[in-house]
Design a protein that fits this description.
single chain; alpha+beta; Glutathione S-transferase Yfyf (Class Pi), Chain A, domain 2; 9 helices; about 10% strand; globular; transferase activity; Thioredoxin-like_sf; Glutathione S-transferase; transferase
Length: about 220
């Protein structure tokens, strides 16, 4: 298990799942140097004693870093919490995030960030499991998770159409990073985004062209 080294470089414990890719996309976009500790979940390394000391729930990603205020060592898990922490510490020009001092737009950021955490991630994740990994095909479970995922993409389509192609304040935001890692993986769950949700498709193509996004997405891959 990797630990924070003497030069205070961020350590990312992860693997190339959509949640893990959220972290690498943002770090590459912000040009943040980091050590990478690959946690092979196919070998159940996330259940090791050393990893569970970082996250008792045994889920990636996890970062080890230092608090920007007092430089104390911190451990952050949950991908969207990692996005918030990393933006607060490394996006010093506030090009990709807002703080509470910015007023209502901060709450727009928070609601769309949490939308990706509470709606996009679990619905698409369940669809991926039932379509690709479940030991027994369950048509009801597949259809149910598909319906929930399609509802999420319907909401994204509506928001992007109303907000000139962005989730927050008509500009790039950490909420887009959170969405990107899952939308780019949509073909794995057999979603025809290009034809069914054209605004989401255009959004994906736009994000693909932003510095660090594809590099961060392809930094690691699971399978």
């Amino acid at each position: 298990m990797t630990v924070i080294d003497s030069d205070n470089k961020l350590v990312l414990h992860s693997i190339g799942t959509p949640n893990g890719r959220r972290a690498t996309v943002l770090l590459k976009h912000l040009n943040v140097p980091f050590q990478y500790d690959r946690i092979d979940i196919t070998k159940q390394e996330q259940f090791s004693k050393s990893f569970r000391s970082l996250n008792p729930y045994s889920k990636i990603p996890v970062i080890e870093d230092h608090d920007p205020i007092n430089n104390e060592a911190v451990v952050i898990f949950e991908s969207c919490a990692i996005l918030l922490f990393s933006a607060e510490k490394y996006d010093t020009q506030k090009k990709i995030h807002y703080t509470i001092e910015d007023g209502p737009v901060y709450w727009d950021q928070m609601k769309w960030l949490f939308f990706t955490a509470s709606d996009l991630s679990p619905s698409q994740g369940q669809l991926s499991f039932y379509r690709n990994f479940a030991p027994v095909q369950d048509d009801f479970a597949i259809q149910r998770s598909l319906q929930e995922t399609e509802k999420v993409y319907d909401a994204l389509e509506l928001r992007l159409n109303e907000n000139k192609g962005w989730l927050v304040s008509q500009t790039l935001n950490i909420a887009d990073v959170a969405a990107y890692a899952f939308v780019k993986r949509s073909s794995f769950v057999e979603l025809d985004v290009e034809h069914k949700w054209p605004q989401v498709w255009n959004y994906l193509e736009k994000l693909d062209k932003i510095q660090g996004f594809q590099e961060g997405y392809h930094y690691d891959a699971l399978g």
